Amino acid sequence: MRRIHFKKLGCILPVLALLLALPGCNGAEAGTAGTEQTGSDMVSRPDSGEENGETQSNGGIQAGAEAEEQPAPDLKTYSWDEAAVYEAEEGTLLGGTSVKESGGVTYVEGFAKEADGLELTIHIEETGFYDLSFVSRSADGGYKENYVSVDNERMGTAKVEGKQYTDSLISRVYLEAGDHAVSLTSYWGWVQVDSLKVKPSDELDPRRFDIEPVLVNPNATENTRRLMTYLCDIYGKEILSGQFCENGMFGAENATIWKATGGKYPAILGLDMTNYTPVSVAHGAEGHATEYALECWEKGGIVTFCWHWTTPEKYITGNWYSTFYKEHTKINLAKIMNGDDQEGYDLLVADIDAIAEQLLILQEADVPVLWRPLHEAGGGWFWWGNAGPEAYKQLYLLMYDRLVNHHGLNNLIWVWNGQDKDWYPGDEYVDIIGEDIYPGEHVYTPQTSKYLEVLEYTDARKMIILSENGCLFDPDLAIRDGSMWGSFCTWGGEFITKNKQLYLLSEQYTEKDMLKKVYEHEHVITRDELPDLKNYPLAGE
After folding, report:
1. Quick one: DSSP state of residue 316?
2. 376 catalytically annotated
3. Which residues face 86 on adjacent strands?
4. Is 468 a catalytic residue?
5. Which CA distances in Å does 225 have to 194, 364, 413, 526, 535?
6. pTM above the 0.70 mark?
7. Sign of the alpha-carbon torsion through 306, 472, 208, 530
8. pLDDT digits (tens, 9 = 90+) for 505-529
C-alpha cells in the first residue's frame, strides 16, 4: 500500500521541530508558540513555553540535578501521520541497486555489496531534531541491518526482519534548515526499500537522568554503594572516560592516551576475566587482571570487568582461546539450562566458581567492580547468545544467584549488556545497562538513536553507559542531543594504539584532535578528576 505523500513532486516538506535550549550548547531556540498551516504539507509548530515564562531543557547537564522526584512532564509528541514521505525510487541509486515493482509497491533493491545503497535528499524548513524511518522489508525474510548516514555522518543502522514492510527508526537527528542527504548503504544488505519518512522528534523526558543509587543487591558493600552514589550523582552532567587495557592502568593503551593528551589517564580501567577460566588455565594462560584491579582502585581509579568465557574442554571444536565464539565450540546452552546436559551444567558452575575466587579477592580488599558478564548476547556471535534469549536469561540468573547468594559477593555493580530488549533478565538483576557500539572509523556522533532505543529496554529508570566503543564520540554533540552516556570505555589494541612499544596513537578510529578534545572536555571525567571514592558521601551523610 502506498503511503500518503506531502508535496511528492520535488519531495519537499517543511517540517517544524522543537530544539531545546541547552546551557553551553549551540542549539537553536525553540519556535514561537502557536500553529502554522498551509495545506497538507505543513506540521504544527511546537509551543516553546516562553509565553508563560517557562524554559525547557532536555539535554544533559541540567537534567538530573534535582534530588526529589519530579512530576511527569507534559511532553510534546508528533505523529507519523505528520511525516514527510520520500519515495525510494525518486532517490539516487548507488552501486548495484535498482528500482523494481511488485504487488503495487515500487521499491529499491540490490543492497548486496559494500558500495550498494540509496540516497535521498530531504528538505528541512526549520533547525531542530528529527526522526527518520526507512520503510523496508527483508528480501528473504531474515534479519537485516544497514547503515544510515546523514550528510556522510553515520547515525546508526536500519534494522528489519520479515517480508512485511516495516519502519526502522533513527531517532533524534539534529538537522539545520536546508537540504540534507540521507543514505542507506549495505551492511548486512538484501533489503527492499519503499520510502523514507521524516518527522519532528518527540520531546525527551528530563527525568531520564534521575537515578536512585539503590543497588539490586541489598547487601552491597559500603564502597560499592559509594561508587554507585557517585555514578548517579554525575549522570546526565558528566561522562566518565574509560579504556580497556589488558596490562593494567599503566599498560600500552593508557600510556598512549597519556602521551597523546599530555598527561591524562581514563577514569575507568577495563579488564577481562578470560585468563582465569579453567580451560584457559589448563592451556597455560596466566591471569593478572585481579592484581591490576587492586592497583587501579588503590590509585583512585574505577574498575570494570567483562568475561570472554572460554568453554569447558569437552565442547571445544576449534582454538581453545577462541571458544567464547560459537564457531569454536559445540556447547548447547539450551540443553544445559533445560536439564538435558547435567555434566555441562556442573562444568559451567565450576567455571563461575573459578571467577568468583578472583572477585572474592577484590571484595576482601574492598574493591567495587562494574561487573559486565555475558556481554553482547543478542549479537549471536558468543556461545552464551547462540541458544536464544530464554537460555541466556537462565544462565544470567544462575550466575547472579551463584555469585551473590552462594559466594556472598557484595562488591558487584551488575552491568547488563545483552544489546537487545528481548534478552533483558529483569530489573531486579540489573543496576546499569551497557551498550557496545562500533560505528566505524572517525564517526564522532554520540549514537543518539541507540541511546534512546536503550531507554525503552525497561520501564524502570536505569543508568545507561557505553560499555564498549570503537570511536570516541564528541561530548558537545552528546550534550546537544541529550544522549549523555554515563561513561565510555574504548576497546584496546588498534582502537587506540598502533605501536605498543612506542605508545604511538592509532588514528584509524579516533583522530588525535578528537582524542584530546574528549579527554580535555570540561564534562568528561579523567582519573585525576575523580573524587575520593572510598569516602564519597552516601545519601544522608
Report:
1. B
2. yes
3. 196
4. yes
5. 51, 16, 9, 21, 11
6. yes
7. positive
8. 999 999 999 999 999 999 999 999 9
